[in-house]
Amino acid sequence: MTDNIKGKVVAITGASSGIGEATARRLGQAGAKIVLGARRFERLERIAADIILTGGEALAVDLDVMDRGSVDAFAETAISKFGALDILVNNAGVMLLSPLAEVKVDEWDRMIDVNIKGVLYGIGAALPIMQRQGRGHIVNVSSVAGHRVGPGSAVYSGTKFAVRAISEGFRQEAGPAIRSTIISPGAVTTELPNHITDAKIAEAAKAMYSTAIDADAIARAIEYAVTQPANVDVNEILIRPTAQQ
Ligand code: NDP
Protein backbone atom coordinates (compact mmCIF):
# COMPACT_ATOMS: atom_id res chain seq x y z
CA MET A 1 0.00 0.00 0.00
CA THR A 2 1.31 3.45 -0.81
CA ASP A 3 0.89 6.68 1.07
CA ASN A 4 -1.26 8.79 -1.25
CA ILE A 5 0.40 11.98 -2.44
CA LYS A 6 -2.95 13.72 -2.97
CA GLY A 7 -3.12 16.97 -0.98
CA LYS A 8 0.53 16.82 0.16
CA VAL A 9 2.47 20.07 -0.19
CA VAL A 10 5.64 19.56 -2.23
CA ALA A 11 8.24 22.31 -2.74
CA ILE A 12 10.71 21.70 -5.56
CA THR A 13 13.87 23.75 -6.17
CA GLY A 14 15.08 23.99 -9.76
CA ALA A 15 11.59 23.31 -11.07
CA SER A 16 11.97 25.42 -14.23
CA SER A 17 13.46 22.61 -16.35
CA GLY A 18 14.65 19.02 -16.46
CA ILE A 19 14.17 16.75 -13.46
CA GLY A 20 12.54 19.43 -11.29
CA GLU A 21 10.00 20.29 -13.98
CA ALA A 22 9.21 16.60 -14.65
CA THR A 23 8.75 15.99 -10.91
CA ALA A 24 6.48 19.02 -10.54
CA ARG A 25 4.32 17.87 -13.45
CA ARG A 26 4.16 14.23 -12.26
CA LEU A 27 3.38 14.96 -8.60
CA GLY A 28 1.05 17.83 -9.59
CA GLN A 29 -0.96 15.47 -11.78
CA ALA A 30 -1.08 12.98 -8.90
CA GLY A 31 -2.83 15.62 -6.77
CA ALA A 32 0.00 17.15 -4.74
CA LYS A 33 0.09 20.91 -4.16
CA ILE A 34 3.28 22.06 -5.82
CA VAL A 35 5.47 25.05 -4.96
CA LEU A 36 7.86 25.54 -7.87
CA GLY A 37 11.09 27.48 -7.31
CA ALA A 38 13.87 28.68 -9.64
CA ARG A 39 15.21 31.91 -11.16
CA ARG A 40 13.47 31.70 -14.57
CA PHE A 41 10.11 32.80 -13.25
CA GLU A 42 8.20 32.86 -16.58
CA ARG A 43 9.02 29.20 -17.12
CA LEU A 44 7.81 28.34 -13.63
CA GLU A 45 4.58 30.23 -14.26
CA ARG A 46 3.97 28.30 -17.48
CA ILE A 47 4.55 24.94 -15.75
CA ALA A 48 2.34 25.96 -12.80
CA ALA A 49 -0.39 27.04 -15.24
CA ASP A 50 -0.22 23.64 -16.99
CA ILE A 51 -0.58 21.84 -13.64
CA ILE A 52 -3.58 24.02 -12.72
CA LEU A 53 -5.15 23.39 -16.15
CA THR A 54 -5.10 19.64 -15.48
CA GLY A 55 -6.97 20.20 -12.20
CA GLY A 56 -3.96 20.47 -9.89
CA GLU A 57 -2.72 23.16 -7.52
CA ALA A 58 0.61 24.92 -8.07
CA LEU A 59 2.41 28.15 -7.32
CA ALA A 60 5.51 29.64 -8.98
CA VAL A 61 8.01 31.31 -6.63
CA ASP A 62 11.10 33.30 -7.59
CA LEU A 63 14.00 31.43 -5.92
CA ASP A 64 17.76 31.69 -5.88
CA VAL A 65 19.16 28.85 -3.76
CA MET A 66 22.44 30.76 -3.36
CA ASP A 67 20.54 33.28 -1.22
CA ARG A 68 19.55 31.96 2.21
CA GLY A 69 16.76 34.51 2.65
CA SER A 70 15.27 33.49 -0.69
CA VAL A 71 15.26 29.81 0.36
CA ASP A 72 13.66 30.64 3.73
CA ALA A 73 10.97 32.68 1.94
CA PHE A 74 10.39 29.80 -0.49
CA ALA A 75 9.70 27.35 2.36
CA GLU A 76 7.49 29.90 4.15
CA THR A 77 5.44 30.38 0.96
CA ALA A 78 4.45 26.71 1.15
CA ILE A 79 3.03 27.41 4.61
CA SER A 80 1.33 30.71 3.78
CA LYS A 81 -0.21 29.43 0.54
CA PHE A 82 -0.94 25.77 1.28
CA GLY A 83 -0.65 25.50 5.09
CA ALA A 84 2.15 22.90 5.28
CA LEU A 85 5.43 21.70 3.85
CA ASP A 86 5.27 17.92 3.54
CA ILE A 87 8.07 17.31 1.05
CA LEU A 88 11.03 19.40 -0.07
CA VAL A 89 12.89 18.29 -3.19
CA ASN A 90 16.37 19.87 -3.14
CA ASN A 91 16.92 19.49 -6.86
CA ALA A 92 18.49 22.74 -8.13
CA GLY A 93 22.00 22.09 -9.39
CA VAL A 94 24.71 23.02 -11.87
CA MET A 95 27.34 20.81 -13.51
CA LEU A 96 30.26 22.90 -14.73
CA LEU A 97 32.77 20.17 -15.55
CA SER A 98 36.40 21.11 -16.20
CA PRO A 99 39.92 19.89 -15.39
CA LEU A 100 41.26 21.31 -12.13
CA ALA A 101 44.29 22.69 -14.02
CA GLU A 102 42.02 25.20 -15.78
CA VAL A 103 41.42 26.77 -12.36
CA LYS A 104 37.86 27.91 -13.14
CA VAL A 105 37.39 29.24 -9.63
CA ASP A 106 34.12 31.04 -10.45
CA GLU A 107 32.62 27.76 -11.63
CA TRP A 108 33.90 25.88 -8.56
CA ASP A 109 32.32 28.54 -6.37
CA ARG A 110 29.02 28.35 -8.22
CA MET A 111 28.81 24.57 -7.93
CA ILE A 112 29.61 24.73 -4.22
CA ASP A 113 27.09 27.54 -3.68
CA VAL A 114 24.22 25.94 -5.61
CA ASN A 115 24.83 22.23 -5.12
CA ILE A 116 26.01 22.16 -1.50
CA LYS A 117 25.02 25.40 0.18
CA GLY A 118 21.69 25.46 -1.67
CA VAL A 119 20.86 22.02 -0.28
CA LEU A 120 21.93 23.09 3.23
CA TYR A 121 19.80 26.25 3.02
CA GLY A 122 16.88 24.06 1.94
CA ILE A 123 17.38 21.79 4.95
CA GLY A 124 17.82 24.82 7.21
CA ALA A 125 14.54 26.29 6.01
CA ALA A 126 12.49 23.08 5.99
CA LEU A 127 13.69 21.16 9.04
CA PRO A 128 12.26 23.50 11.72
CA ILE A 129 8.93 23.56 9.85
CA MET A 130 8.89 19.76 9.57
CA GLN A 131 9.82 19.37 13.26
CA ARG A 132 6.93 21.67 14.20
CA GLN A 133 4.58 19.69 11.97
CA GLY A 134 5.84 16.37 13.34
CA ARG A 135 6.26 15.04 9.80
CA GLY A 136 8.18 15.71 6.61
CA HIS A 137 10.37 14.30 3.87
CA ILE A 138 13.43 15.83 2.23
CA VAL A 139 14.58 14.49 -1.13
CA ASN A 140 18.11 15.51 -2.11
CA VAL A 141 19.23 15.08 -5.71
CA SER A 142 22.81 13.80 -5.87
CA SER A 143 24.19 11.88 -8.87
CA VAL A 144 26.09 8.83 -10.07
CA ALA A 145 28.89 11.44 -9.88
CA GLY A 146 28.24 11.40 -6.12
CA HIS A 147 29.48 7.81 -6.15
CA ARG A 148 32.47 8.09 -8.43
CA VAL A 149 34.86 10.66 -9.85
CA GLY A 150 36.11 11.01 -13.42
CA PRO A 151 38.47 13.43 -15.14
CA GLY A 152 36.84 16.86 -15.13
CA SER A 153 34.32 16.02 -12.43
CA ALA A 154 36.43 16.58 -9.31
CA VAL A 155 34.48 19.58 -8.05
CA TYR A 156 31.05 18.53 -9.35
CA SER A 157 31.54 15.05 -7.87
CA GLY A 158 32.78 16.66 -4.66
CA THR A 159 29.52 18.57 -4.37
CA LYS A 160 27.44 15.46 -5.07
CA PHE A 161 29.45 13.33 -2.58
CA ALA A 162 28.72 16.12 -0.11
CA VAL A 163 24.98 15.95 -0.85
CA ARG A 164 25.03 12.25 0.01
CA ALA A 165 27.01 12.83 3.22
CA ILE A 166 24.67 15.63 4.32
CA SER A 167 21.62 13.49 3.51
CA GLU A 168 22.92 10.57 5.55
CA GLY A 169 23.65 12.86 8.49
CA PHE A 170 20.17 14.34 8.13
CA ARG A 171 18.62 10.85 8.08
CA GLN A 172 20.34 9.93 11.33
CA GLU A 173 19.52 13.19 13.10
CA ALA A 174 16.01 14.01 11.90
CA GLY A 175 14.22 11.26 13.83
CA PRO A 176 11.58 8.72 12.80
CA ALA A 177 8.89 11.24 11.78
CA ILE A 178 11.01 12.89 9.09
CA ARG A 179 12.23 10.94 6.09
CA SER A 180 15.10 11.57 3.71
CA THR A 181 15.89 10.23 0.29
CA ILE A 182 18.91 10.60 -1.96
CA ILE A 183 18.20 10.40 -5.68
CA SER A 184 21.34 9.62 -7.69
CA PRO A 185 20.72 9.76 -11.45
CA GLY A 186 23.08 8.90 -14.26
CA ALA A 187 22.77 10.70 -17.61
CA VAL A 188 19.35 12.32 -18.02
CA THR A 189 18.28 14.43 -21.00
CA THR A 190 18.08 17.96 -19.55
CA GLU A 191 19.76 21.34 -19.94
CA LEU A 192 22.42 20.40 -17.35
CA PRO A 193 25.39 19.75 -19.71
CA ASN A 194 24.63 22.87 -21.81
CA HIS A 195 26.46 25.13 -19.36
CA ILE A 196 29.85 23.34 -19.55
CA THR A 197 32.42 25.87 -20.79
CA ASP A 198 35.34 23.48 -21.40
CA ALA A 199 35.09 22.57 -25.11
CA LYS A 200 36.66 19.09 -24.84
CA ILE A 201 34.54 18.04 -21.89
CA ALA A 202 31.40 19.51 -23.47
CA GLU A 203 32.08 17.31 -26.52
CA ALA A 204 32.60 14.20 -24.34
CA ALA A 205 29.42 15.00 -22.41
CA LYS A 206 27.48 15.15 -25.70
CA ALA A 207 28.57 11.57 -26.47
CA MET A 208 27.61 10.38 -22.99
CA TYR A 209 24.22 12.09 -23.15
CA SER A 210 23.38 10.43 -26.49
CA THR A 211 22.03 7.44 -24.52
CA ALA A 212 20.52 9.46 -21.67
CA ILE A 213 17.13 8.62 -20.18
CA ASP A 214 14.29 11.15 -19.92
CA ALA A 215 13.65 13.31 -16.88
CA ASP A 216 10.34 11.57 -16.13
CA ALA A 217 12.30 8.38 -15.30
CA ILE A 218 13.78 10.31 -12.35
CA ALA A 219 10.41 11.87 -11.50
CA ARG A 220 8.98 8.34 -11.25
CA ALA A 221 11.77 7.37 -8.86
CA ILE A 222 11.00 10.42 -6.71
CA GLU A 223 7.28 9.58 -6.83
CA TYR A 224 8.08 6.05 -5.63
CA ALA A 225 10.13 7.34 -2.69
CA VAL A 226 7.54 9.88 -1.53
CA THR A 227 4.51 7.62 -1.85
CA GLN A 228 5.66 4.88 0.52
CA PRO A 229 3.89 4.36 3.86
CA ALA A 230 5.08 6.79 6.56
CA ASN A 231 7.31 4.21 8.29
CA VAL A 232 9.18 3.33 5.08
CA ASP A 233 12.22 5.48 4.34
CA VAL A 234 13.66 4.95 0.86
CA ASN A 235 17.22 6.06 1.61
CA GLU A 236 18.67 6.19 -1.90
CA ILE A 237 17.80 5.39 -5.48
CA LEU A 238 20.65 5.02 -7.96
CA ILE A 239 19.24 5.10 -11.48
CA ARG A 240 20.99 5.31 -14.84
CA PRO A 241 20.60 4.42 -18.52
CA THR A 242 21.24 0.76 -19.31
CA ALA A 243 23.97 1.97 -21.70
CA GLN A 244 25.86 3.90 -19.01
CA GLN A 245 28.95 2.29 -17.40
P1 NDP B 1 18.57 21.48 -15.58
O1 NDP B 1 19.71 22.36 -15.98
O2 NDP B 1 17.52 21.21 -16.59
O3 NDP B 1 17.90 22.01 -14.26
C1 NDP B 1 18.61 22.65 -13.25
C2 NDP B 1 17.63 23.45 -12.42
O4 NDP B 1 18.35 24.09 -11.36
C3 NDP B 1 16.95 24.53 -13.23
O5 NDP B 1 15.58 24.54 -12.93
C4 NDP B 1 17.61 25.81 -12.74
O6 NDP B 1 16.65 26.88 -12.76
C5 NDP B 1 17.92 25.42 -11.30
N1 NDP B 1 18.95 26.29 -10.72
C6 NDP B 1 20.23 26.47 -11.09
N2 NDP B 1 20.81 27.41 -10.32
C7 NDP B 1 19.85 27.84 -9.45
C8 NDP B 1 19.82 28.80 -8.42
N3 NDP B 1 20.90 29.55 -8.11
N4 NDP B 1 18.68 28.98 -7.72
C9 NDP B 1 17.57 28.25 -8.03
N5 NDP B 1 17.53 27.33 -9.00
C10 NDP B 1 18.67 27.13 -9.70
O7 NDP B 1 19.28 20.12 -15.11
P2 NDP B 1 18.71 18.81 -14.37
O8 NDP B 1 17.26 18.77 -14.34
O9 NDP B 1 19.46 17.68 -14.96
O10 NDP B 1 19.31 19.05 -12.90
C11 NDP B 1 18.56 18.82 -11.73
C12 NDP B 1 19.45 18.13 -10.70
O11 NDP B 1 19.75 16.83 -11.16
C13 NDP B 1 20.79 18.81 -10.45
O12 NDP B 1 21.05 18.82 -9.06
C14 NDP B 1 21.77 17.91 -11.17
O13 NDP B 1 23.07 18.00 -10.63
C15 NDP B 1 21.13 16.57 -10.96
N6 NDP B 1 21.57 15.52 -11.87
C16 NDP B 1 21.31 15.60 -13.21
C17 NDP B 1 21.79 14.63 -14.06
C18 NDP B 1 21.60 14.71 -15.54
O14 NDP B 1 22.23 13.91 -16.26
N7 NDP B 1 20.78 15.61 -16.07
C19 NDP B 1 22.52 13.46 -13.55
C20 NDP B 1 22.69 13.46 -12.14
C21 NDP B 1 22.23 14.45 -11.33
P3 NDP B 1 16.95 28.41 -13.12
O15 NDP B 1 18.13 28.43 -14.07
O16 NDP B 1 15.67 28.85 -13.72
O17 NDP B 1 17.25 29.05 -11.80
Q: Looking at the structure, what is the overall shape?
A: globular
Number of beta-strand segments:
9
Number of helices: 7
The SS-based structural class is alpha/beta
**Major sheet attributes:** 7 strands, parallel
| Helix content, binned percent | 40-55%
The SSE order reads EHEHEHEHEHEEHEHE
Any idea how many domains? 1
CATH class: Alpha Beta
Gross CATH architecture: 3-Layer(aba) Sandwich
Return the CATH topology. Rossmann fold
Put the structure in a nutshell.
The chain has 245 residues and is an alpha/beta fold.
Structural features:
Rossmann fold, two-stranded parallel ribbon, alpha/beta, 7 helices, 245 residues, binds NADPH dihydro-nicotinamide-adenine-dinucleotide phosphate, single chain
SSE layout and pairings?
Layout lengths: L8 E5 L4 H12 L3 E6 L2 H13 L3 E6 L5 H15 L4 E4 L14 H29 L2 E6 L12 H21 L3 E8 L2 E2 L9 H11 L3 E2 H12 L9 E4 L6
Parallel strand pairs: 1-2, 1-4, 2-3, 4-5, 5-6, 6-9, 7-8
Description:
This protein has 245 residues and is of the alpha/beta class. The chain has one domain (9-238): 3-Layer(aba) Sandwich (Rossmann fold), CATH 3.40.50.720. The chain contains seven helices and nine strands; from the N terminus they run βαβαβαβαβαββαβαβ. It has helices at residues 18-29, 41-53, 68-82, 105-133, 154-174, 199-209, 215-226, and strands at 9-13, 33-38, 57-62, 87-90, 136-141, 178-185, 188-189, 213-214, 236-239. A seven-stranded parallel β-sheet has the order 3-2-1-4-5-6-9, sandwiched between helices. A two-stranded parallel ribbon has the order 7-8. α6 (199-209) links the parallel β7 (188-189) and β8. The radius of gyration is 17 Å and the shape is globular. The two termini are 34 Å apart. It binds NADPH dihydro-nicotinamide-adenine-dinucleotide phosphate.
